[in-house]
Amino acid sequence: MRASLIQIAVDEGESAEARRRRAASLVRQQAGAADLVVLPELWTTGAFAYEAFAAEAEPLEGPTYELMAKAASDAGVWLHAGSIPERDPEGPLYNTSLVFSPSGDLAAAYRKIHRFGFDQGEAVLMGAGRELVTVRLPGTTLGVATCYDLRFPELFRGLVAHGAETLIVAAGWPERRRAHWTLLARARAVENQAFVLACGTAGTHAGVAQAGHSVVVDPWGEVLAEAGSGEQVLTVEFDPARVAATRDQFPALKDRVLGLEPPTGA
Q: Which long-range contacts (CB under 8 A, 24 or more apart) does 151-156 make?
């Protein structure tokens, strides 16, 4: 399987609509080069452009949906179209990822569960998702996560329990914590014996420099490919069958112990 991670740059001088058209063109350029294409988190607005969330929020089947569905169909690829600020007419805003099939149909939508901000920013401006999301592809099952989710291993354990073999992380990760980005991507791969495809943004969001360095990690924690800091399309070929082989060769997941008792006297 070939995957292309589109590490798009967010330029504050470029409108969201212009970036949508540019991203759709980049997706279409992957026709014949990739089976799976991944975009990062909140690339239409910038993950730290909190003031723009409400103004740029769109319904699930809004302009990003329409352009990305067409791009997936034109390219004939599975497309994780990154995330958008979703406006739910009956609720709050959500940080919502969209996954399209090669026919352009919506295969899944994932509302980010762990919101970043420590009682400010995204944590107060957006609602929290409640459902794990997996997507069955020919040859592998995707588990979908977004940015700050990467710090919560129990979410990924849940995805693996529901069949995930390839973990997709769309992010707008800051440069000042780039070391954590690579470390956590490798940790999630090792502990779940899964591929991790982590796609971040380049550029600057509301004055916050982005880490870039999108990365693909194999089930043993080895980095197969890593981008630089600028806008880049990172394409890598990987064998999903290595997940089952790794789990068979080193069956650590079988030794998980759940439901332990609390400490005596707690």
A: 151/114, 151/180, 151/184, 152/113, 152/114, 153/187, 153/188, 153/191, 155/113, 155/114, 156/188, 156/191, 156/192, 156/194
Mean pLDDT of the chain: 97
Domain ranges of the chain: 2-252
Instruction: Give the separation between CA 177 and CA 168, rounded to whole angstroms.
Output: 19
Residue 209 contacts residue 79 (beta carbons within 8 Å): no
pLDDT > 70: percent of the chain: 100
Identify which of 126, 191, 123, 117 has the alpha carbon closest to the alpha carbon of residue 154.
Answer: 191
Q: Specify the DSSP element, H or E, that contains 161.
A: helix 153-161
Residues forming the active site: 41, 112, 147
Q: Determine phi and psi for 152, rounding to 5 degrees.
A: -125, 90
Helix (H) or strand (E) holding 245: helix 241-249
Q: Which two tokens stand for residue 76?
A: 């004939």
184 phi and psi, to 5 degrees?
-70, -35
Tell me which amino acid residue 211 is. A
Q: What does the block give as tokens for 94?
A: 């959500």
pLDDT tens, position by position, 173-218:
999 999 999 999 999 999 999 999 999 999 998 999 999 999 999 9
pTM of the model: 0.97
Render pLDDT for 77-103 as a digit per residue (tens, 0 to 9).
Answer: 999 999 999 999 988 999 999 999 999
| 3-state helix/strand/coil string of 209-222 | EECCCCEEECCCCC
Correct CATH for 2-252 of 3.50.50.60, 3.40.50.1970, 3.60.110.10, 2.60.40.10: 3.60.110.10
57: phi then psi, degrees, rounded to nearest 5: -60, 145
Q: 44 falls in which pLDDT band (50, 70, 90)? A: very high
